[in-house]
Structure prediction request, 141 residues.
Amino acid sequence: MRRVGRGLVGLGGRRTGRWYHTVGVRVPVPQNEPVLTYMKGSKEREAIESEVKRMKAAEPVEIPIIIGGEEYKTGKLEEVRAPHNHKQVLARYHCAGERETKLAIEASQEAKQKYSENKGLISEDRRNKPTLPLTIPHSCN
Prediction:
């Protein structure tokens, strides 16, 4: 490449305006997803309304505590309610007690040890990059 005026000229270069650009790069035209209207009688509105009805009729989901990839159910449950309708229960989650909290601390210490030893969990080039924070189980009062 050689400098000509304010631009660079390379093989197959052409001048556009005051600058030279290389030829041969084609950027595809972006395509957006279809815009749905959700008007009465439309397929998308019918699909969403039927899914909402199904979810309202369904039993609340039970959410266990997950520590080190294992599920724990304490039997002490709290409810997750819809933000717009506090009468509607979406799910019930198990509350962590002292035992589950200790297990979570032990699991996080084991994970830290594995990560620090780099046992195939992270590659060498990603070692010093930040990772997602650990999730601490929710404790009910």
User: Anything to note?
Assistant: The mean pLDDT is 79. The first strand starts at residue 2 and ends at 4. Helices lie at 43-57, 98-117.
